[in-house]
Amino acid sequence: MGAMLPLAALIAGGAAARADDLGPLNLVGTEHTYLEFAGGLFDVDGHRGTNTTGEVSGEWRYGKKFFYIGPALGVLANFQGATDFYGGFYSDLKFGKVVITPLGAVSWYNKGGSLNLGGTFQFRLELGASYELDSGSRVGLKIDHLSSAGINKVNPGESGLMVTYAIPLSY
User: Fold this and answer.
1) What Å distances lie between residue 68 and 25, 36, 93, 129, 159, CA to CA?
2) pLDDT of residue 66
3) Residues with Cβ < 8 Å from 112, sequence gap 6 or more?
4) Is the residue at 12 inside a domain?
5) What is the largest CA-CA distance in the chain?
6) Distance (Å, whole) CA 42 – CA 111
7) 1-44: per-residue pLDDT in tens?
8) 161 is in which domain, residue-wise?
C-alpha cells in the first residue's frame, strides 16, 4: 500500500518511517481511494420527542493525501426526507488490519420532514472503525454528529450510528 508514518514518530517530530519499522499504530499516507456505503440510525439521541429513523449514506475518500490528510465528499439521506451533502477532510490510523478514520466536514442540510437543526449550514464530525479484508475492502462501524456548533439559534445537533462497507477504487 502507500506510505505510512508511525504515530510515535509523528508526535516526536521524527523522520518518516515505514509502517513495520516502529510501533503498531500508524498514520496512513497515500493509499486506495475508497467509496463507502453505510446504513444505520439517524438521531440516535431522540431529541425533544423526535423519532430515531433509518439513514443511508455514500462517501468518497480520495487516497492521495497531503501530510496524511485527504479530501472526502459524502451524501446522507434519512427515511424522513432529510438530506445532507458534505465535504471535508479525513485521515486514517492503522492498527494491523483495524483502521480508525476521523473526518471533519462542512455540510448542507435539508431537513425534509425530519429534525430541525436550525439551518442549512452544519458541521459534521465522524469517527469510523473498520476491519480491512484481504481484498482491501473494509467493513466497520461509524458514529457521526451533525451540528451548527451554536451558529444557529436552534442547535439540537444529531448523532448517527452506521454499519459501513468501503470498496477500494484505485491508488
Assistant:
1) 14, 19, 10, 17, 26
2) 93
3) 78, 80, 81, 82, 83
4) no
5) 52
6) 12
7) 455 555 555 444 444 434 434 468 888 888 999 999 999 988 88
8) 29-170
Return d(Cα 50, Cα 132) in angstroms, integer.
36
Positive/negative CA dihedral, 107, 169, 37, 69? negative
Contact 114, 81 (CB under 8 A): yes
Task: CATH number of the domain at 144, please.
Answer: 2.40.160.20
Set of cell numbers at residue 115: 429534525
Number of domains observed in the structure of the chain: 1
For residue 160, tell me if it sits in a domain.
Answer: yes
User: Is 134 inside a domain boundary?
Assistant: yes
Q: H or E segment at 7?
A: helix 7-12
Is 128 part of a structural domain of the chain? yes
CA distance 123 to 148: 6
Task: Work out the number of other CB atoms within 10 angstroms of the CB of residue 21.
Answer: 12
